[in-house]
Amino acid sequence: MKIADAGIAWTGLYVASKVVFALEERLGVTGGPKVSPDGYLTYGPGEVASAQWANAGSGVLIMAILLAGRFRFRGRWTYRVTLAAHWLCTAVAAVGAAGMLGGAVLTDRGGAIFGAYCAVWAVLLCLATVDLRRRHRSVGR
Question: pLDDT tens-digit profile of 37-46?
Answer without folding.
Answer: 998 999 999 9
